[in-house]
Amino acid sequence: MIFLLKEAKVTLHTTYVPTLRTKNLLAQKLIRYVNLNIHEHLTTQDVSKKFFISQSYISIMFSRMLNINFKFYVSSLKVALSLYDLVQHSKSIHETATHFSFTNVSTYSKHFKNFVHMPPKKFIYHYRSMKRRSPLSKIHTDVEYISKYLSQLKQNIKLKNNVISNINLDDLQFNNHFEPMVNVIQLKQFI
Fold this sequence. Notes:
The protein is an all-alpha fold. The protein is 51% helix and 0% strand.
């Protein structure tokens, strides 16, 4: 029996931000507000005026629910979302910093380096050089060309080698940095 993997591309018309679930209705509203207004300059003072609560209560709530403070959450989310603009839209570092309402490029670079462990310019360089050196080439759709690989694949597949791993999300811990991008696909059998 041959198993073929299918790919799917889903186009989102808004920026994807992972959902944080909590039973606290106020926390849900705060997080939703921050996520929707991430391109604005956000401070606890602004949010406290919007929700009629104290700045210290916002900080305490974020610390208790997410184990990070409000400022850290906002800056980490801005940096994470800015990665897409830098590599997919080829925006300049200045444009990206402005788009996410950082006070200046230096502040953006400082936050970026704190989370990604390299400056934005180096990150862009690594991404673009990795893209140029990609070992993947255009996929052939010719059935005769693919059939020889499918027959080899059929011979090599052994179902007993398939392992199902369960991941307990409660055991995962937040890490305050991103690892550099790496190639995930390796095609050793077909070379």
